[in-house]
Amino acid sequence: MAENPIHVEINGDIATVRLNRPKKFNALDGPMFTELHDAMYRLGFDDAIRVVIVTGEGRAFCGGGDLAAIQSSDSERVDRGLWHLAGKFHEGIREIRAMGKPVIAAINGPAAGGGLSLALACDMRIMADNAFLKIGYIENALSIDGGGSFSLPRLIGLSRAIEIAFLDEKISAVRALELGLVSRIVPADELPKATLTLANRLAEMPTGALARAKRLLSASFDNSLSEQLDLERKAISEAVVTDEAREGMAAFLEKRRPKYR
């Protein structure tokens, strides 16, 4: 595979964004941050793509930030460098969260530090049974980044998020499923097939409805009930005049399966 830090594969209406620094356990660096953002931006606006998969090349999903590169930089300017790199990373995370189509993390190996944050930013996570998750930042005397401090307590609650962050232990696939950090676990050799099956199932769904659900559910954490009801009212009023809603309602009345894809 080419040595681009991000490799995008298109299979019909499903795109796979593959982190491609396998010799470095797909460690995140400046070029990877830039390409991750650009790939997510392009795919988000590509109407031909209905689902996006994020995974890693080789044995790891993503081992986190490239600490060797950080340590080799000028110590008097490392804070400025990290400020810049974190901003580039955050741009990619924002694109994932803003994307109106489902994003699946296929966790094929260790996901630590920024790799864990990246996985948590995705809408769904499917994990190989031999993979593990790890905060990583705390053990290295750094601070949680990449939206991890936002996603983690929302997925599992504040108390458990604090425990995971403070202890910074490896989280097995079984434990990740128990905690609700991943949607499902599968044998490692079945991960690509299982992920594609899930992606195809989502691709059969109405993408506009999925986008509205994603926006509403994400917004609910910051809104009062009254504010959320206003958003729901607006969303359902907009949805009902779309082609996919017409198809969905017609299929219901005609007692047949709707065709969105």
From TrEMBL:
<dbReference type="Pfam" id="PF00378">
    <property type="entry name" value="ECH_1"/>
</dbReference>
<dbReference type="InterPro" id="IPR014748">
    <property type="entry name" value="Enoyl-CoA_hydra_C"/>
</dbReference>
<keyword id="KW-0456">Lyase</keyword>
<dbReference type="InterPro" id="IPR029045">
    <property type="entry name" value="ClpP/crotonase-like_dom_sf"/>
</dbReference>
<dbReference type="InterPro" id="IPR001753">
    <property type="entry name" value="Enoyl-CoA_hydra/iso"/>
</dbReference>
<comment type="similarity">
    <text>Belongs to the enoyl-CoA hydratase/isomerase family.</text>
</comment>
<dbReference type="GO" id="GO:0016829">
    <property type="term" value="F:lyase activity"/>
</dbReference>
<protein>
    <submittedName>
        <fullName>Enoyl-CoA hydratase/isomerase family protein</fullName>
    </submittedName>
</protein>
<dbReference type="InterPro" id="IPR018376">
    <property type="entry name" value="Enoyl-CoA_hyd/isom_CS"/>
</dbReference>
<keyword id="KW-0413">Isomerase</keyword>
<dbReference type="GO" id="GO:0016853">
    <property type="term" value="F:isomerase activity"/>
</dbReference>
<dbReference type="GO" id="GO:0006635">
    <property type="term" value="P:fatty acid beta-oxidation"/>
</dbReference>
